[in-house]
Design a protein that fits this description.
GO terms for molecular function: 2 iron, 2 sulfur cluster binding; metal ion binding. The protein is 0% helix and 46% strand. The chain is built from no helices and 9 strands. A 6-stranded antiparallel β-sheet has the order 1-9-8-4-3-2, with no helix packed on it.
Length: 108
Amino acid sequence: MAQEWQDVCASQDILPGEMQVHWVGDTPVCLINYEGDLYALEDRCSHEDFELSQGEFDPLAGTVECVLHGAKFDVTNGHPLCAPAYRSVLRFAVKRENGRVWVGKTPL
């Protein structure tokens, strides 16, 4: 099945080191610009169903930390890097096209 895409913002609206939340269908997604590359993770910690966007994105380490219990995730693949999270966060495809950022509607 072909990926369906949703336009979420202009390319210039998310600069390196920034994180934004966009709704893709019914799913809140953290759009993250890590060193100029864009990544999209579900805005939900896999440990405690809390918004990752409330935590901190570390643009040097490429991690996002859940403010609730301190679980950290690799923004490039959604994998947990420490307890208490043991499951990856859902991630979504991202593309830039015609000056816009598009996020896939189906998780990878």
